[in-house]
């Protein structure tokens, strides 16, 4: 398929481009970075610079696409003004989706967020109702990032009602790669119960890229939302014990797939999308949370 990947020079976008190309798809990479006038390196995709908050640029970049993977976004509400986060993320999603529909694309993969339920960046803190959290959990976002991702999912709902496009929204947990496992997850590996809004969940970027390929190639109708996370928690600790120690009985503990379960459930993605995560923090860190020597 001819696949457009937005945010292609970001953490998720780079891995998605590579996985899609390895799966035989013709990929065009789109991002804000200025292109360089050089002969493409072997295996490098075609690159287009575009600001997707501008409808004209979005339409120009996404024309002739058969599928779109929309990973472009400001990735958190903490380093930009709130209105900048909300406007950028929501308008980029709206424009990219509108361009995909008008170009005749049949599949749109929307990279949403685990923050959609709202308990990550909230000014008035609250806990999830239950764990592991799944797609049925109530949605109560307060911050501009989670709101933009929630509204992005609603744009997918509207798109399938008014066109023949099929949409998948992926809600990845905290995305890790070779360069940041020790910095981000090391403390949680060393200290069972180290606080974290994501209930000790994480996602390997290459497992997420595999899920993106599955979503592009999926024949699922309508719009489906999936959590994407590693099956275990950071450190491989006893999840029930950590949850009780951190939150007592304030969070309902539901059935676990394994004792060292993640705080997010990817059961739906495994069932309907065929998601099979292959990578773990153990591939990168030792039992003390230090990077393994190469």
- Taking pLDDT < 50 over at least 5 consecutive residues as the criterion, the unreliable ranges are none
The beta-strand count equals 11
Radius of gyration: 19 Å
Q: Count the domains.
A: 1
From the spread of the alpha carbons, the general shape counts as globular
Largest sheet: 7 strands, parallel
CATH fold description = Rossmann fold
Distance between the termini: 36 Å
Q: Which class in CATH terms? A: Alpha Beta
Helix coverage percent: 25-40%
Please describe what this structure looks like.
The chain is α/β, with parallel strands linked by helices. 34% of the residues lie in helices and 15% in strands. It is built from eight helices and eleven strands. The strands form three sheets. The protein has a seven-stranded parallel β-sheet, sandwiched between helices. A two-stranded parallel ribbon has the order 6-11. A two-stranded parallel ribbon has the order 8-9. The longest helix has 22 residues, at 82-103. It starts with a strand and ends in a 21-residue tail after the last helix. Residues 3-222 form the NAD-dependent epimerase/dehydratase domain.
């Amino acid at each position: 398929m001819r696949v457009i990947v937005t945010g292609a020079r970001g953490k998720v976008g780079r891995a998605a481009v590579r996985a899609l190309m390895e799966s035989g798809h013709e990929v065009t990479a789109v991002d804000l970075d200025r292109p360089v006038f050089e002969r493409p390196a072997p295996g490098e995709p075609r690159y287009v610079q575009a600001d997707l908050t501008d409808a004209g640029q979005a339409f120009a970049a996404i024309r002739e696409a058969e599928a779109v993977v929309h990973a472009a976004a400001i990735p958190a509400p903490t380093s930009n003004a709130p209105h900048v986060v909300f406007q950028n993320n929501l308008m980029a999603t709206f424009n990219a989706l509108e361009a995909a529909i008008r170009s005749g694309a049949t599949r749109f993969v929307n990279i949403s967020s685990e923050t959609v339920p709202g308990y990550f960046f909230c000014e008035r803190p609250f806990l999830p109702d239950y764990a592991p959290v799944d797609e049925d959990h109530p949605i109560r976002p307060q911050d501009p990032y989670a709101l933009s991702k929630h509204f992005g999912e609603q744009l997918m709902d509207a798109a399938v009602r008014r066109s023949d496009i099929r949409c998948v929204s992926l809600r990845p947990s905290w995305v890790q790669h070779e360069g940041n496992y020790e910095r981000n997850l090391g403390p949680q590996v060393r200290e069972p119960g180290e606080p974290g809004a994501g209930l000790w969940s994480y996602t390997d970027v290459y497992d997420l890229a595999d899920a993106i390929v599955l979503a592009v190639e999926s024949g699922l109708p309508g719009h489906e939302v999936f959590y994407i996370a590693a099956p275990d928690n950071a450190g491989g600790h006893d999840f029930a014990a950590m949850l009780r120690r951190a939150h007592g009985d304030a969070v309902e503990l539901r059935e676990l797939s394994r004792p060292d379960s993640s705080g997010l459930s990817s059961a739906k993605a495994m069932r309907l999308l065929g998601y099979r995560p292959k990578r773990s923090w153990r591939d990168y860190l030792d039992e003390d949370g230090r990077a393994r020597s190469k």
